[in-house]
User: Which sequence fits this backbone?
């Protein structure tokens, strides 16, 4: 075989452009995911699950998280604008997710991942495992369909709906952590030509999978302040698009890293904060305490702190503070008041 001298060729404008384009795609498809963060603010008053962003209801939450990118691409921005917010209190975790998509089908009511649906991944991470690799945690699937529906039958709806619920460790699919009933999380889905809203409530008691395991999933109580959990929300669109909040270069939503959420805020102590004569009637006393909207309170009066007279046992709490007026309170006597949380 005759050795031939390889001739060098000068770069042309076309060859330089091909090199640059090739390098661009190489860099894009091999770019690493960044871990997004979100602060979940404590709010003693729970949002009402009705599929509507009511005025003031989510104002205490951190700014809405958005900027979803498409899975199985080099990080292409989603053309569907999706955003979400989170809140928490002693009862559980709350989420609102909104989209500007206006094209919705009619869901048949069963598990159907060819239909529009949100997929939510949550890991309490009690085992302090690194935020990488296969998934540990809870997977919740919620379908998006025309109209206003809810998971459980209530005043909004008359039919119970299917929800995809799995818990797993070191796996992207399956329910090997044994997340079993009762699972009382509830959601309301409201979609139409205005876009779409999903509101979700997950009680802490639902994080009850893998009770005797060592995978960090069992957490049936509220987190501590500054705890960090792993979280992601993604969507399977009927169009085939796969927008996800914490994008990765993997092939599946469950593959980490996921986003990280930090529980912040402060609990307001349940105490009487103000006491004094009523502005309109000096013979009446006003008692004010820190309260939670919708909770029921009772107020009692005593002259010796041994025997108590119940003044009212059906006071519905207002947001942050509630005031009760003891009309024609006894004069010339030392008296004591107490406030009880009833339900």
Assistant:
């Amino acid at each position: 075989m005759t050795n031939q001298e390889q001739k060098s060729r000068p770069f042309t404008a076309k060859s330089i452009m091909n090199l640059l384009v090739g390098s661009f795609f190489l860099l894009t498809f091999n770019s690493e995911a960044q871990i997004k963060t979100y602060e979940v603010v404590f709010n003693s008053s729970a949002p009402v699950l009705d599929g509507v962003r009511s005025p003031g209801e989510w104002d205490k939450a951190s700014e809405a998280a958005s900027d979803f990118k498409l899975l199985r691409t080099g990080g292409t921005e989603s053309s569907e604008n999706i955003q979400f917010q989170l809140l928490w209190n002693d009862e559980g975790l709350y989420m609102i997710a909104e989209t500007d998509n206006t094209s919705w089908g009619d869901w048949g009511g069963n598990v159907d991942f060819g239909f529009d649906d949100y997929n939510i991944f949550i890991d309490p991470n009690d085992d302090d495992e690194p935020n990488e690799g296969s998934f540990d945690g809870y997977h919740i699937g919620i379908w998006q369909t025309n109209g206003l529906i809810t998971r459980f039958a209530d005043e909004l709806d008359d039919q119970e709906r299917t929800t995809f619920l799995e818990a797993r460790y070191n796996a992207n699919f399956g329910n090997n952590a044994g997340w079993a009933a009762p699972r009382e999380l509830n959601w309301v889905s409201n979609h139409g030509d205005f876009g779409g809203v999903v509101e979700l409530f997950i009680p802490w008691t639902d994080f009850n999978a893998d009770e005797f395991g060592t995978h960090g999933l069992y957490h049936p109580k509220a987190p501590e302040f500054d705890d960090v959990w792993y979280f992601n929300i993604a969507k399977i669109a009927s169009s085939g698009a796969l927008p996800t909040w914490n994008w990765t270069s993997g092939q599946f939503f469950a593959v980490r890293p996921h986003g990280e959420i930090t529980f912040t805020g402060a609990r307001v102590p349940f105490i009487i904060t103000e006491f004094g004569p009523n502005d309109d009637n000096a013979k009446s006393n006003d008692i004010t305490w820190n309260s939670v909207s919708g909770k029921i309170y009772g107020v009692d009066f005593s002259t010796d702190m041994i025997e108590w007279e119940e003044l009212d046992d059906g006071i519905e709490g207002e947001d942050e503070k509630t005031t009760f007026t003891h009309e024609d309170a006894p004069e010339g006597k030392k008296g004591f008041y107490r406030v009880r949380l009833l339900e």
Q: What stands out?
A: The chain has two domains: 33-264, 272-341. The first strand starts at residue 37 and ends at 42. The helical segments are 13-29.
